[in-house]
Amino acid sequence: MVETRSPATLKPVIPGNRQRWLIYGGIGILVIGSVVFLRSRSAAPPEPAPVVQTQTDRYVGALGRLEPEGRVAKLTAPQSGFSQARIAELRVEEGDRVEAGQILAVLDNQPELAAAAAAANSAVAVAQADLNRILAGAKSTERQTQQQQINRIQAELAIAQREYDRNQALFQSGAIAATALDSKRLEVERLRGELAVARSTLDSLAEAQPEQVQLAQARLAQAQAQAQEAAAKLANTVIRAPFAGQVLRVNSRPGESGSDDGVIELARTDRMQVIAEVYETDVGRIQVGQPVTITSEHGGFSGSLKGRVALIGGKIDKKGVFSTDPASDIDSRVVEVRIDLDPSDRQRVSQLTNLQVLVRIDAGRS
Questions:
Q1: pLDDT band, residue 5 (cuts 50/70/90)
Q2: Which of 102, 181, 214, 283 has a beta carbon 3.0–4.6 Å from 335's, enabling a disulfide?
């Protein structure tokens, strides 16, 4: 009879060799995993990949404007006293080139102040002549006349002295009264007094007195000071060019007084430069000497201009040059950077003062 078992009572039978290999394989996997894990923790972190500066990051862009070196000088009419002088004569027109010191305009108060200066110079001449006369003393004819006066008094005194001596003898003999003797004595004393005065006068004519010299010198100094003041006022009746340059604009015509923009605007247009407004976040990348490329935003000139950074401003301010882009930030903070144009490009833009330009600074070179 065959014995049968139900499935619930059946047990799987695994051969002994297969069971051992399964155990060994599990242990090997655990060992290899542990080694890999420990090596990954002890290994140094990989070096970061080098950052390559892109072509876009290399450049700093900004808006700017063309300006003459030293900017534009606004020449005004000097104010004289409480009144503002008017233009009497205009000697230049817009576009004219002038030299340093050249007269550009004449004011209407020139004739009046010229007469005052002439009168002041005449007063100096008179004061100088008075001082010279005092230092030289009196003329020889005056001294001779005074000496003759002394000689006459001395002769009269000698006669009066003899008369007094004779009357004194007569008085002692009782021939004349005392009143007659007193009369002769008074005459002698009078002549002696006149002689002393005459000699003193001669001394004053022969040698200038210190107080007279000092007074004359003070009068001369006062006259000279007044003449200098008059000359300064006369010099202010003309407007001169402070430097050689070009007349950009004439703001006042004959018969008009100076405006807030001055009478004449003058600039060195042969030395044009660019004033770029660089964002404060970019100014740290800018260095003196870096090359710059300038183009016109609205076609003011063709092609591009070349230059180099010459000066980085030390003041952060609001933007003064604005883009036509409505999305641009008008409240941005910027630093002015001066760019000197290459000599070959200066003449190209000599007539484009205040033209707005686009600036690209090569921050990767110097």
A1: very low
A2: 283
Q: Which residues pair with 86 in a beta bridge?
A: 257
User: Does 141 reside within a domain?
Assistant: yes
Confidence (pLDDT) at 80: 59
The sign of the dihedral angle between the CA atoms of 354, 357, 363, 366 is negative
Q: Is the pLDDT of residue 145 over 90?
A: no
**Residue whose tokens read 């009269």:** 156
Instruction: Enumerate the β-bridge partners of residue 334.
Output: 279, 317
Query: Does residue 203 carry a pLDDT above 90?
Result: no
- Which tokens go with 64? 């700017």
Are 265 and 72 a contacting pair, CB within 8 Å? yes
The reply to whether 275 and 351 lie within a common domain is yes
pLDDT tens for each residue of 77-108: 876 554 678 899 999 999 999 999 999 999 99
Q: Write the CATH number for 146.
A: 1.20.120
**Can you tell me which residue has the tokens 């700093």?**
60
DSSP code string of 92-154? --TT-EE-TT-EEEEETTHHHHHHHHHHHHHHHHHHHHHHHHHHH-S-HHHHHHHHHHHHHHH
| Residue (of 140, 90, 109) closest to 254 by Cα position | 90
Closest CA to 205 of 123, 129, 128, 150: 150
- 335 part of a folded domain: yes
Same domain, yes or no: 227 and 274: no
Domain check: are 227 and 277 in the same one?
no
Q: Which CATH number do you get for residue 354?
A: 2.40.30.170
Q: Give the three-state DSSP class for 3.
A: coil
Examine the fold and report which residue of 201, 231, 261 is the final residue of a domain before the chain moves on: 231
Q: Domain boundary residue among 210, 231, 252?
A: 231
Q: Give the DSSP letter string of 239-301.
A: EE-SSSEEEEEE---TT-B--TT-SEEEEEEEEEEEEEEEETTTGGG--TT-EEEEEESSSSS
pTM: 0.57
